[in-house]
Amino acid sequence: METLENEDSSFHYFIDEGLITDVVRVIKTGKEASVHQCRANPATGENLVALKLYHPLDRRDFRDESLYRDGEWIKERRIRVALEKRTRFGREVQGSIWVNREWETLTALSEGGAPVPRPIAATHDAILMSYVGDAEMAAPQLRSVRPDRDEAQDLFEQLIRAIEMMLFRNVIHGDLSAYNVLVWDGRVTVIDLPQAVDPRKNRHAEALLERDVTRICEHFERYGVRSSPKSIVSDLWTGWTFAELVPEELRVELEL
User: Fold this and answer.
1) How far apart, in whole angstroms, are the C-alpha atoms of residue 59 and residue 242?
2) Of 82, 110, 130, which marks where a domain is finished?
3) How far apart are the first and last CA of the chain?
4) Coil, strand or helix: which one is 43?
5) Is 136 within the bounds of a domain?
6) How far apart, in whole angstroms, are the C-alpha atoms of residue 212 and residue 177?
7) Which of 28, 72, 109, 129 allows an S-S link to 114, with CB 3.0 to 4.6 Å?
8) What total of structural domains would you count in the chain?
9) Which CATH number belongs to the domain containing residue 155 in this structure?
């Protein structure tokens, strides 16, 4: 009953705000959230949108966030202690951090041109974003796509480019796999970013990047795409490190 009330409340909020007109169907359910296809108010610039609704706290499968929160500093001691002890209040804070991180990451990446859904609006437990697919079918996960050799090579290159674009905007997905990449009309879209980390702060960033790249390389290897994850990571990390050392104004000149 709590789940239904939580969903109804979130749906009504976005309807009352004039962002969606109605909820069409469930696209996906997972450990932490469900995603719903909705008809959008044309004012959003979309015909259809996706509403990602996080489950109530007692239904969320919170992973150990210490790996992803490394390097982050919460000023208020009361909140730090609550997070460490995983009290009810700490779980509420953790839940808000999870949603806020995804919203902020989607916003930064979308504005930077990375292939992610465009965020439209958010509450403490839901994010409304652009929808990938059409009225009859949501874009499938990469794991469900069976490309031929040339298609696989193209999708692989798109994803490595996406990882690079994210990295140069100081974002590492941290949990990238064939389960959180959508494919539609031959184009990839990266989803599910609440655990994303900032490589400038997180000591595990390079290892997380290597894990992301390795998973993608291993997935495409079964379709005949040969690659070297370690070489790709080395090139990406070296390029990002150099870019971080170059003043922003010079970077702009170099890009021009």
Assistant:
1) 43
2) 130
3) 57
4) helix
5) no
6) 7
7) 109
8) 2
9) 1.10.510.10
